[in-house]
Amino acid sequence: MGEPLRPITDLSLDELRAVMRDLGQAEYRAEQVAGWVYRSTVTSFAEMSNIPKALREALAERFRYHALEERAALLSTDAETRKLVLSLPDGELIESVLMRYPQRPDGTGSERATVCVSTQVGCPVKCAFCATGLMGFSRNLSAGEILDQALYFLRWTREHPPIVRNVVFMGMGEPLLNYDATMSAVDRLVDTRCAGMGVHRMTVSTSGWLPGIERLIEDSLAVRLAVSLHAPNDELRTSLVPLNRRFPIPQLMETLHRYQRATGRRVTFEYTLLDGVNDSPALARELVSLLKGLDSHVNLIPMNPVSDLPFQPSPWPVVDEFHRILRDAGVICTVRREMGRDIKAACGQLRSELQKRERKSA
Ligand code: SAH
Ligand code: SF4
Q1: What average pLDDT does range 340-360 have in this prediction?
Q2: pLDDT at 342 (0 to 100)
Q3: Model pTM greater than 0.70?
Q4: Taking CB atoms and a 6 Å cutoff, what residues make up the pocket around ligand 2?
Q5: Domains, the chain, ranges and CATH?
Q6: Residue 115 and residue 168 in contact, taking contact as beta carbons nearer than 8 Å
Q7: Is residue 344's pLDDT more than 60?
Q8: What is the pLDDT of residues 227-285, one digit of tens each?
Q9: What is the atom index within ligand 2 of the atom nearest the CA of 130?
Q10: Cis, bond preceding 162 (omega within 30 deg of 0)
Q11: Which pLDDT band, with edges at 50, 70 and 90, does 78 fall under?
Q12: Is 95 among the residues known to form the active site?
């Protein structure tokens, strides 16, 4: 057996045009094919009804239509979170999650759907409370492998609305350690000739890989930036996010101030609340001082418990108090709605369990 075929989504539109030239076809065929791949519900070249049969066959010989195969799916009991374990052409496994937010019971807010995609198989950063960190790092995903997760749910939500409008790069892996593939995926998600989504609806989440934030500043991409902070001082943060030893908080904050001056954009901070570890009122006050002068939004995340790890979620009264201290100090702050805890929505957990089960039955 040779190498597995590349997914067609690995190709930029320019590369797709070059393929058309090589096949003796008119270049406009590239945009027609992209229309099917990025904006329809079809799942094979054979279904592209306005493309000549010979070209459909030539493409099918050279490319796979999509990179992913569904290996396991879980639906949360409230039916709003759908989590998939997907296999890649080389057999590696990743996770992607669809989160649907209904209108509030009082009729305010709007229905919307967000997909959370992985950017690496495993993760080299190894945060102390993260199931993905526990499994180590295998490899980066290609642009097509990242994109196809969003396209998978885009196709599905065209038939089960609301349609996906937001993509968060918050699944397995550290997106800024796989910068080129992640940003190529963003390019094709926002290109109107491809998926045509809003660039402000793309959120890249980082544990603080500063060379990546520097590149975001240079490239002046309009994606949103979320920083996984989890602690307001170096000692505590280094114990949770080992990358902090290399890029400590003063350097991180200096870079974020520069990012904000250059882009004018608000920075989101993620703060996962761990019982008795980073959830005290004193730490909330320390966080308030750290964020002074930066236009920021703090997203408090109730921890998803991970078996084999010694952390527990903070009790609700503690979460509320932490939230109140930030809010009273004028910090914009939300508590992430708990989604899918019953299906282990913290990325990495479902894949780990599937592999444990498969090892047992092997
Ligand atoms: N590597 C990137 C993006 C993926 S992790 C990053 O760290 O930002 C996405 C978010 O999930 C991060 O904020 C991470 O800290 C959080 N997270 C990881 N494990 C978690 C858990 N068990 N419970 C709640 N949040 C978790
Ligand atoms: Fe990697 Fe993010 Fe998990 Fe840390 S929290 S190990 S950076 S995926």
Answers
A1: 63
A2: 57
A3: yes
A4: 123, 125-127, 130, 132-133, 173-174, 207, 228
A5: 6-64 (1.10.150.530), 69-361 (3.20.20.70)
A6: yes
A7: no
A8: 999 999 999 999 999 999 999 999 999 999 999 999 999 999 999 999 999 999 999 99
A9: 3
A10: yes
A11: confident
A12: yes
* Stretch 158-182: mean pLDDT: 96
The predicted pLDDT at position 314 comes to 95
To test the ligand 2 pocket, which listed residue (228, 272, 349, 352) has its Cβ within 8 A of the most ligand atoms?
228
What sign does the CA torsion over 172, 174, 179, 180 have?
A: negative
> For residue 174, which ligand has an atom nearest its CA?
1
Please tell me the number of the ligand nearest to residue 170's CA. 1
Q: pLDDT per residue over 201-210, tens digit each?
A: 999 999 999 9
